[in-house]
Amino acid sequence: MVCHRCVMAVADILRQEGLEARHIELGTATLAAPPTAEQQERLRKRLEAYGFELLDDRRQRLIEQIRTAVIEYVRYDDSARKTNLSSYLTHKCHHDYSALSRLFSEANGINIERYYILQRVERVKELLIYDELSVSEIADRMGYSSVAHLSAQFKNVTGLSPTRFKQLKDRRIRPIDHI
Fold first, then answer.
1. Model's pTM, two decimal places?
2. Is 64 within 8 Å of 72 (Cβ atoms)?
């Protein structure tokens, strides 16, 4: 689950399956009681129909927890950026950052830092498309040390400067779950 609409969709699916959720947040749902094997299989199919996965492997859950924490860090938790990413992930995932980094890299073929940069650039693209903030304001909001740093990172990922991207008619952003 990568956005608040995803949380609502999962909550709805759980309700329809007659399962009581104690807590649902990005990436996880805690049920009041374990589902039966039959309920679990129906739940798996319904979640997959929406593009979600039912993760019952501890390793896969941790990888998803890392992915979700990075997305939260970039998109939803402005106060989190007062701490560095490694500390944030250590706190959110309750594991040493080096172990998280190794696991994530093995599973995804890119390291956490690269994934973070890709998420960040996609968020910058969205803000550029909305056209409500200047590049300077976006740099500040996204925690870049300068407009030059934002521009260099943006160009490295997209091949375009933020200003050039803003001028394009065919501006494309990738869904956050496809990064």
1. 0.71
2. no
